[in-house]
Request: fold
Amino acid sequence: MIRPILTFPDPLLKQKSAPVTIITDGIIQLAKDMAETMYDAPGVGLAAPQIGVLQRVIVIDVAAKNDAPQLITVINPVVIHGEGETFEEEGCLSVPDFSANVKRHERVVVKGLSLEGQERIWHAEDLLAVAFQHEIDHLDGILFVDRLSPL
Ligand code: NI
Reply:
C-alpha cells in the first residue's frame, strides 16, 4: 500500500526512531509499503519516519531507471565504518523541490538485519553510500538540509 510521505516541517521528521526488537508481520508489511511508496514517488530511498512510523527501517534502490530493481531493506541499520569524502547533490522526498550538495563519506560499511532477521553487512560506495547515510540520518531525525554548511 502506498502511504503518504510526510514533508518538512512535519515534527515527526525531527524525531529519533526506535530500534525494531521483533520482526513482526507488521514490520514486514511496513517494509513492503515503504518500497511501494518509494518506487511510486519515485525515489532512491525511504526511511520509516517519512511515512510517520518511528521505527528503524530503511529501503533503498539506486539502480538506474532501465536496470532491474535492486531493493535493499535494512532493519536497525548502523554505519560501522566510513571513509573518504564526497560532495554530491541530494534531494529528499520529504523536502520537495529542493536539492543541495552535502558532504558525506564516499564509502561506508553498514551493519543491520535483513527482513528475515539475519545480521548482514553492506559495503557501499558512491551513490549507494550516500543513500545509506541519508536514510540512516532520517532515523535520527536529521534531514539533509540540517547538514548544509552555512555559507
Ligand atoms: Ni530523505
Strands lie at 45-47, 57-60, 72-83, 86-92, 95-104, 107-113, 119-125. Residues 34 and 46 are 7 Å apart (CA to CA). The chain has one domain: 11-147.
